Amino acid sequence: MKTTGNNSQLANNLFCFLAIVFILYFLKPFIVPLLFAVMLSIMMYPAAIYLERQWRFNRIASSLAVVLLLVVIFTGLFAFIGFQIKDVIGKSDLYSERLTQLNVQILQYTEDTFGIDKKQLLSDRSLKIENLIKNNFSRISDFVTQSGSFISDLFLVPIYIFFLLLYRKFFVTFVHRAFPKKDNAYLNVILKKIYQTQQDYLSGLSIVMLIVALLNSFGLLLLGIENAFFYGFLGALLLLIPYIGIIVGSLIPAFIALITKDSAWYAVGVIGVFAFVQFIEGNFITPKITGSKISVNAFVCILALVIFAMLWGIAGMVLALPVTATVKIIFDQIPSMKPYGFLMGEPDKDYLRSTAYNRLANWKKIRALKKKGVL
C-alpha cells in the first residue's frame, strides 16, 4: 500500500510539472512581461518607500514617480543603443568590404598552404558574404522597431509596475487569504525571503553590470576599438544571461576588431580584455557586492537556462535565475518539497571531496579519538 501511495504521489507531481510547463509555454506573452514587471517593482520598491517616508508622497504619487523614473532610464538606454546601432549600420558597407578582403586573404593562405585552388573556393562567395552582412545589419533595426510583442511590452510593463507598487499590501493580504491554514507570520517569512533575495540580487547585479561596463569600455578604448563604450556596455548588459552572455558579448567586438584592424591580434586582445574582466568580476566584484544571494548550484542554473530558453527564448534566459531562486525558497519552506530544495542548493564541501579524502579524514578522526582514549 505504501508503494502504491508513493507511485501515486510521483504521478501527481509529474502531472503537475507537465501542466505548469504547458501553461508557461502557451501563456508566454502574458507571463514574461508580468515577471519582468515583478522584478523591476521589487528593485524599485525602496525608492517608492523613500518617496513616501521622506517626501510625504502618497501611494499613487510614489508609484507613478517610480514608473516615470524607470521610463526615463530605459528611454535613455534605448536611445544610446539606437544611436550606436545606427552608427554601426552606417558602416556596414565598410565592414562588408573589409570582411570580403579578409575572406580573400584566408583563401589565398589556404591556397598557398594546402595547394587548393582559390578560384574554386571563392566562386561567388565574397558577394554572398557582403550581401549577408548588409542584410543582417539592416535587420537589427527592423527587429527592434517592428516587433509587435516588444512594443506592447513597453506599454504593459510600466502599467504592471505601477499597480504592483500601488496594490502591494493588497496582494500580501491575498496571499494570507489564499492559504488560510498557514500562519500569517509563516507566510510573511517566505515573502520576505523572496523579496530580500530578489532585491539583493537585482540591485547587486545592477552595480556589477555598471562596473563591468566601465572596465570593458576602458579596455576596448586602450585597444582602439570603434564604439568602445557601446560594446563595453553591451557586454555588461549580456551578463543578464548567465554563462552565455559574456561569450556573446566578447565575440561581437572581437569580430568588429577582426574586420576593422590590420592585425588579428586586436581580436585576440579584445577576448583577452573580456576574459580578464570576467575573471575580476567572478572572483572579486560579484562576491563582494552580491555574495551568494542566489544559493542555487551551477548544474541547476544550467538546467534552468536550457529549460527557460526552450520555453521563452532570450527572455527566459534572463528570468531563469530569479525564478529558480524563488522556486527554491518556496521548496525549502514546504516539508514535502524540501528534498528538491536541497537538490537545487549549493552542496557542502564534504559532497565535493573524493572518497579517498573522506576516508583519510575519518581515519585521522579515529586516530585522534584513540589517542584521547575515547576509543
Annotation field: number of helices: 17
Q: Please mark out the parts with pLDDT under 50 across 5 or more consecutive residues, or reply none.
A: 124-130, 143-148
Number of E-state strands: 0
The biggest sheet amounts to:
none
Describe the secondary structure blueprint for this structure.
Elements: H1 2-26, H2 28-54, H3 59-90, H4 92-114, H5 118-122, H6 125-146, H7 148-166, H8 168-178, H9 184-223, H10 228-237, H11 244-260, H12 265-289, H13 298-312, H14 314-333, H15 338-344, H16 349-352, H17 355-371
Helix pairs in contact: 2-3, 2-7, 2-9, 2-14, 3-6, 3-7, 4-6, 9-10, 9-12, 9-14, 10-11, 11-12, 13-14, 14-15
Keywords:
mainly alpha; single chain; 375 residues; 17 helices
Would you mind describing this structure in some detail?
The protein has 375 residues and is mainly alpha-helical. It is 85% helix and 0% strand. It contains 17 helices and no strands. It starts with a helix and ends with a helix. Residues 124-130 and 143-148 have low confidence and may be disordered.
Structure summarized in a few sentences:
By secondary structure, the chain is mainly alpha-helical.
